[in-house]
Amino acid sequence: MDELKQDTRSTAVALSLDTLDQLPAGVGRPTYRRADLTPGIVHIGLGNFHRGHQAWYLHRLMQQGLAHDWAIIGAGVRPGDARMRDRLLAQDCLTTLIELDPAGISAEVIGSMIDFVPVEDGHAALIAAMSDPRIRIVSLTVTEGGYYLDATGALDMAHPDIVYDIAHPDTPRTAFGAMVAALRNRKQAGHAPFTGQSCDNLQGNGTILRQTLIGLARGIDAELADWIDSAGSFPNSMVDCIVPATGDAERRRALKLGIADTVPVTHENFRQWVIEDAFCQGRPDWDKVGATFTQDVHSFEAMKIRMLNAGHQILANAGEILGLPTIAACMSDAQIAPFFRKVQIDEIAPHVSAVPGITPEAYLDLITRRFSNPEIHDTTRRVAFDGSSRHAGFILPILRDALAAGATISGLALVEALWARMCHGTREDGSMIEANDPIWTDLVAAAERSRTEPIAWLQQTQIYGDLAQDEPFATAFAGWLSFIWENGARATLTEYLSRA
Fold first, then answer.
1. For residue 104, what pLDDT is reported?
2. Where would I find the Mannitol dehydrogenase N-terminal domain in this sequence (predicted)?
């Protein structure tokens, strides 16, 4: 439809279970009774992506009369999660999903989440919830940088949070410490472990979650670690849907549709979820509503992470330097869009294998259309956030493969140089880029040093490891960063695009 028929009343309907029948015509809503749902999943990290993706798939199953014993209990471990909890509980954990299709906007209210545990120091309520044998899956969206990995990809046992959790296993700081505490409770009570399901953009995300939990558990109780390793399961998965952050514009959009929702979610008209079928305590039949179960998640992960997630970094860093507000604006830029496509075709696609149903070239066309959707106000700032994790996870593995193969890396080196320039904290129009990374202060300092000594940027070994010693990459990077500072980003993009 062109757009939902606008509600003509002076005030929108305040979202709650009691007002579902008052929602404007055309807004989808649960057909199941929330009182009939029982919990089966605890999800840690109740941001927009989870509500627009995993919770939606479960809601779709519930609409078919299925999976009513798999309802979600929300959880979080950060101060911002407490604010989300208050807002969701005030509207009975309902969420308005607004699909932003260029052909027309539609909305539905989903109700697959039924509660949200208190967010507190020591995580007692979260541990208790995960200790309940009815909970058969604990899933997470805690961002790519939230798994305490060192530069080699191993668990950073020296990180203060990990050290603390090992010393205080009953009152941990981290989500992983809380999961280990709950698994210990289940073992002691004679209950089976839950499945740990990462839904973050990490290649081998289930394997990484297993590594984090078992490494932490081994520091506390070796026998517990062995039990988790042998009896638990950690399926790998690939998740995909562009879900912008919620702000006043998104709340106004919900109000325009006749719904007063303090935390609505806007999203594109595309979703994908590819999951390894490895669940130790059963699972919902998500494949009945469009998810794919397979034993070969790796190929799907590699295509998505290397082309979509790495592609986001190609766009966002250049866009921030040049003051472009959204990814769609970057895709309409006469230099950034061809820069994105050239790096993808020349330096990323050659290191990506086809998956059933789509080639890397066709996938590039798909994400080009998705990124260009003018209805999706996905900010360059959001996409550029936590570059220290995203470049390490999305860009550098491709770079290492290309170097090993003797392939061209000029465009990837330019991507890294643009990130270094962005982390200087200023745009080319002189405006400031606000702190946008957990280690922003360190990045700004390295960016300043690299203005006169480009190699200083690559000496951040926690990100680049030994790449500063790779002469072809270091030389290409230094050349591009010097060119950017001498001539500006626009002239640099022109220079790159002019090269065969």
1. 87
2. 40-288
Q: Whole-model pTM?
A: 0.87
Q: Which residues contact 227 (CB under 8 A, 6 or more apart)?
A: 183, 187, 193
Euclidean distance between CA atoms 208 and 147, whole angstroms: 8
pLDDT at 79: 84
Q: What is the pLDDT of residue 419?
A: 98
Q: Which residues of the chain have pLDDT under 70?
A: 1-10
Q: How far apart are CA 409 and CA 393, in angstroms?
A: 17
Burial class (CB in 10 A: 0-12, 13-18, 19+), 337: middle
pLDDT of residue 10: 52
Output the pLDDT for position 177: 98
3-class SS letters over the chain: CCCCCCCCCCCCEECCHHHHHHCCCCCECCCCCHHHCCEEEEEECCCHHHHHCHHHHHHHHHHCCCCCCCEEEEECCCHHHHHHHHHHHHCCCCEEEEEEECCEEEEEEECCEEEECCCCCCCHHHHHHHHCCCCCEEEECCCHHHHCECCCCCECCCCHHHHHHHHCCCCCCCHHHHHHHHHHHHHHHCCCCCEEEECCCCCCHHHHHHHHHHHHHHHHCHHHHHHHHHHCECCCEEEECCCCCCCHHHHHHHHHCCEECCCCEEECCCCEEEEECCCECECCCHHHHCCEEECCHHHHHHHHHHHHHHHHHHHHHHHHHCCCCEHHHHHCCCCHHHHHHHHHHHHHHHHCCCECCECHHHHHHHHHHHHCCCCCCCEHHHHHCCHHHHHHHHHHHHHHHHHHHCCCCHHHHHHHHHHHHHCCCECCCCCECCCCCCCHHHHHHHHHHHCCCCHHHHCCHHHHCCHHHCHHHHHHHHHHHHHHHHHCHHHHHHHHHHCC
Q: Which burial class, exposed, middle or buried, applies to 498 when counting CB atoms under 10 A from its CB (0-12, 13-18, 19+)? A: exposed
- How much is the pLDDT for 8? 39
What domains sit in the chain, N to C, each tagged with a CATH number?
13-295 (3.40.50.720), 298-498 (1.10.1040.10)
